[in-house]
Amino acid sequence: MEIKxxxxxxxxxxxxxxxxxxxxxxxxxxxxNHIFVDYxxxxxxxxxxxxxxxxxxxxxxxxxxxxxxxxPPVSGG
Length: 77
What we know:
- By secondary structure, this protein is an alpha+beta fold.
- It has helices at 7-13, 28-38, and strands spanning 2-5, 17-19, 25-27, 48-51, 54-56, 61-63, 68-71.
- It has 2 helices and 7 strands.
């Protein structure tokens, strides 16, 4: 599953995508757990998960067919 990343997450991992090898489907909570195991440099990072351009909660199921992105908080003024 390819996951798009932005801003501070992109800077920390040095790439604009994360590739995770998961089954056909996974919950967002399980996805986060995999990310924190595979990318320990993201430990403590705060972000929301978007599925097909909509924010989703940890119990939402995502598949490799979905567009998934990690969106860190945005500030501005």
